[in-house]
Amino acid sequence: MSWLLIPALILLVVLGLRLWEEYRIRRRDTLEDAIKYLYDCEEQNRHATPEALAGRLGLSTRATHRLLRRMAQRGLIRFCGTRVCLTPAGKALGLQLLRAHRLWERYLSDFTDVPLAEIHRLADKREHHLTPEEIQALEATLGYPRQDPHGDPIPTEKGETRAEVGVPLTDWPVGKPARIVHVEDEPEDLFAQALAEGLLPGVDVVIVEARPEGLHLKVDGNDVWIASIIAAQVHVIPAPQQVEEEHPPMSLADLTLGEKARVLGIAKDVRGLLRRRLLDLGFTRGAVVQEVLESAFGHGDPKAYRVRGTLIALRREQAARIYAEPVEDNEE
C-alpha cells in the first residue's frame, strides 16, 4: 500500500515546488514594480509616500509596509521623513527596469505586429526577465533608440536622456502647428482612445477650437474631436517647418534595395481612405522604412518595404507620395 502512495507524494512535492516558485516570482515582480515606481517618482520630482505606493500596486497598507521593510533590508530604499527614497542600489535597479521596459516596447513596436495599445502590458511582464547583458544586446540590436513608441526617453546605462520636453496639448495655443512627442500610456483606456484618433509621437496637429470639454483638432487633414482628459495625455512641441511639396528631399520611391529612410510626411493630395490606410500601415512621421524586396516584373514595381516590423508592398506611384529623408543605421 505504501508503494502506491509514492507517486502521489512525488506529485504533491512537484506541485508544492511549482507553487513556491510562482509565489517567489510574484514577490520579486511586486518588489521590482515598486522600485520602478519610486524611480519614476524621483525622475519627475514627485514625492513617493507609502500610501501612494499602495495605491499604485493595489496592495493593502499592511502588505505595503511589509514590502517596504523587505526593500529596506535589502538596502534598496530609505525613509526621508514621510517619503520613501531610493538608495544608490535602488536607483541602479530602477534604471535597469526602466531601460528594459522601454527597450522592449521599442522592440515590440518595430519588429512585431503587436498593437501599440498592448505593448505596455507585455513590456511590464518582460522587464522582470531581462538581464543587464540582455538589455545591452537589445539596445544595440535596436540601434540605440532615444525614445520608446510613446515618446518616453530611453535612458542610457548611466541614466542620461536626450528627450524633447513637450507641454500638454491642453496648454497649446489655438492655430499654432504642433508635433506630438509623447502620449501617456496610462490609463490604458485613455491611451487607446488617443491611438484611435491617430495621436502618435511624430504626428503633427493643429488646434482649431478649444472648449472646456474638449478640443477640435486637425490631424493629417482630418477633423478630430477629443475630450480634455485625453488631450492632457498628449505632449507637443512646435512643429518643424513643413516639407515643401514642390521640392521634397526624396520619397520612398527613391530608395534602393537595403536603404533606409525616415518618413517626413504624406503628400497633401493623398486624402481620404488611401491616406488613412497608409497611416494605419505605419507610414507615420518619424517611422523608419527600409526597402527589402523588388519585384522581378514590371521594372521592380511594386516594392516591399519594412516598416514597424511588417513588410508592406507599395506601387511606385504610392511610394512617391511618401516623403522621407535618408537615415543611417546608427541614427535610428
Molecular structure report:
- This protein has helices at residues 2-43, 50-57, 61-73, 88-111, 116-126, 132-141, 188-196, 228-231, 272-280, 316-319, and strands at 77-80, 83-86, 167-168, 178-183, 204-211, 214-219, 222-227, 234-238, 260-266, 288-294, 303-307, 310-314, 322-326.
- It is of the alpha+beta class and 332 residues long.
- Among the domains are: 23-86, Winged helix-like DNA-binding domain superfamily/Winged helix DNA-binding domain (Arc Repressor Mutant, subunit A, Orthogonal Bundle); 167-238, Ferrous iron transport protein A (FeoA) (SH3 type barrels), CATH 2.30.30; 252-331, SH3 type barrels, CATH 2.30.30.90.
- The protein has a six-stranded antiparallel β-sheet with strand order 3-8-4-5-6-7.
- It starts with a helix and ends in a 6-residue tail after the last strand.
- 30% of the residues are buried.
- The mean pLDDT is 84.
SSE order and pairing:
Layout: H1 2-43, H2 50-57, H3 61-73, E1 77-80, E2 83-86, H4 88-111, H5 116-126, H6 132-141, E3 167-168, E4 178-183, H7 188-196, E5 204-211, E6 214-219, E7 222-227, H8 228-231, E8 234-238, E9 260-266, H9 272-280, E10 288-294, E11 303-307, E12 310-314, H10 316-319, E13 322-326
Antiparallel strand pairs: 1-2, 3-8, 4-5, 4-8, 5-6, 6-7, 9-10, 9-13, 10-11, 11-12
Helix pairs in contact: 1-4, 2-3, 4-5, 4-6
